[in-house]
Every structure is written in structure tokens, then in C-alpha cells.
Amino acid sequence: MNWYLQTSKDSDVVKSTRINFKRNIKNYKFHLDDLELKELEKKIEDNIYAIGYGLKLLKLKDMDEITKKSLVEKNLISPTFLVKKGEIGSILINDEENICIMIGGDDHLNIQVFSSGLELENTLNLAIEIEEKIGEILGFSINKKYGYLTRRLTDLGTGLKASVMVHLPALVKTGNIGKMLDVVRDFNMEVTGEYGKTTKDQEDIYQISNKQTLGITEKEIVNNLKVIIKKLEEQERTARKMLTKDSIELEDMVLRSYGILTNCKKISYEEAKELLSNIKLGVDLGILDNLDDLKVQKLYLYTKPANLQKYLGTKYDKVEQEIKRAEVIKQIVK
After folding, report:
1. Where do the domains of the chain lie, and which CATH numbers do they carry?
2. Number of Cα atoms under 13 Å in the Cβ half of residue 125
């Protein structure tokens, strides 16, 4: 089962973990033209079996638009990478999709490893193993003083971006989300929305990532982030206990959301996403016992526009998607 359909003991609050190493290949310019990018891609392709891990090289130009957008919705590639490199970029990816390496973005390689829940240490260890293997084969640009060299000064040093996706509906509903996220930012952490964009403090899902990469080790980055996430978990669970004090109001919200989602004839992604947040909260708190974590994860994935169409194997316009989304929701729930 792919990581984005799995759950763990922290999955009530933490949706997923991602480790991303930004690396550049030595003897290549940082900014590659199309010809140089093809040359680098060929070099990687020639060494793909030596790298291992079941990785396959896929070129974005060979994919249809729905497939490319489905990768963004799974957070396997960034929206920026798709826009800038949609015709010339490529990725290395395995069947489980817990490893996805973007080739030719802002840096030559974005080595990403994913896992469900809060798995920072294990995910880091696998990412380091893969990064070291690629480094041995291809060679990275590195400086004794500044560490790994990257296009952006803010990524110098380790070149590591550790990110954790969190679901914080109770902090939003109790009005404490802004205060908590300000504390997170005060600890030199970056707070963005689900797809890495700046967001207002009114969403239920956030990505929390480190800002500092220079003068600090990979393990220190991960440990610092883990401390922050554990505090967020604690505060979110406290907020959930506050919500349960008014059980009628909470149950009414959850059951209304469930009723609309499972009985509607058509629904937009935006509305489905909002209702799903309430439903996941209801499942986590034991209000809904006819849904399990796997069904909730499937609902999150297959209500997204591109993955809905991938699931059904057909392209639909926006109105048709709303009708089909309602049908798919009923299929998954039943």
C-alpha cells in the first residue's frame, strides 16, 4: 500500500513526513539550459540500475496533464516544478512512490523520501542512504566551508528541507490556530499550506518545515522539527478535548458533514475537502465508527480533481467531476 494511504499512531494529527535533499552535480552549471538538462538526465538514466531502489525514470513530456497534476496532488512533485519543467523535466520514482526525485528544478536533484505519520528519523535515514548512493555515483557540488552548494543561499549547508504535514481542525475551530502558528514561526520554522504555498491561518492542513540549513546537522534539523510537531500535537489534542465538552454541537457538525458528503448528488472539491476535515475529526474522536482510517485516506486522495479522474480512468469537465466525485465518495464509504 502506498504511503499516502497508510496511517500510524500519530495519524490523527500528523498526515505525513517528507525529507528533501537539494543537490547539484559537480562539473555542471547550476542553471542548466535544455541541452545540458538532457545531458544530465542521460547520465542519470545510464546509472539508474547502479542507484537501485527500484527507481524508474519518467519524463513529464510523456505524461498526460491529468497524470502530471495527480503527482502534484500527492505532493510528489511541486506545482512550481510542473509549471517550469512540464515539457523538459523528469523524475525518478519507485512503485511505492515513497521515493521521488525531481530532476532539473531549481537544483539538479530534489531527493525526496515520504512516509505516513510522524516518521522523521526513519525517513531521514533512508533519504541519507539514497543521497549517499547517488553522491558516490554522480558526485555532488560541495564546499568545505559552506557544505552542499545550492541555487538558493537559504539552502546552503545540508540542503535539507524536512517537512511534516499536520491536520489541526480543533485549533482552527477554537480560534487558537494563529497563536500556535506564530509560536512555530518564532522557532525559525516555515508554515505553508498543503502544496507549499503561503497560506492564511484559517486552513485545517499545514506543512511545517525547517528554515535553517547552514551550521546545523541533519539530525539537529529533524530533532528540532520533531519537538515543534510534538508540541503542536499536544495543543491540537487539548483543543479536541475542549470541543468534546459541547458534545451535541461537535457531533452535530460531524454528522451533518457526513450526511452531506454521503448523500449529495454533486460536490466541488473545495466543499468535499472542508467536509472531510470534519469527518476525519469525527473518526479520530470515535464519533463515526462506520469509517476507518483507510477509507478516510482514500476519500482525501480520490476526491482531488486529477486523482478522481485517474481513479475513474476518464477525463471529465468540472461539472462532470462534481457528479462523479459524489458517486466515488459513496463507493468508498460503502
Report:
1. 3-240 (3.30.590.10), 247-333 (no CATH)
2. 3
